[in-house]
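Narrative summary of target 7.
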Amino acid sequence: MKMRLGIIALGLLAGSAMAQSPANSPANSPDPAAAVARLPDGAYLGTWQNPSGSVHIRAARCGKLVCGTIVYADEKARGDARRGGTDPLVGTQLFEEFTARGPREWRGRVFVPDMNRRVTGTARLLEDGNSIRVEGCAAQVICRNQVWTRIRG
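Modeled conformation, tokenized:
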């Protein structure tokens, strides 16, 4: 089901308005990379799952960038990806070349396995620190978003 995985992939990239922050906070830093460096260690790294739990990615540093690699996919997600031309799904980099755009926001590319294409995307770490709103847009016209949650342990 192309739309399902497309939404899954697009899910890790959405934006919501940030609250105003004090002048000395990372939110007001002119250097996004410096702002990210001041987040609690590992705030945006780790393992995250899509809303249905059918796909898990591991977010890690890739040099100065952030990437997210699929570490788990259920049978349905694997089948959808296979029909779209992506096999194997596990091990595929879903989030590519994400760069800091602020203390809690990153932009990059999202690979949509069941469509075998890349779209632009954003990811925003939500205030709870355990959720990321992801939005992906194809041609800046068709956009989808999801909230992914951190997997502990």
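Confidence is low (pLDDT under 50) at residues 1-29.
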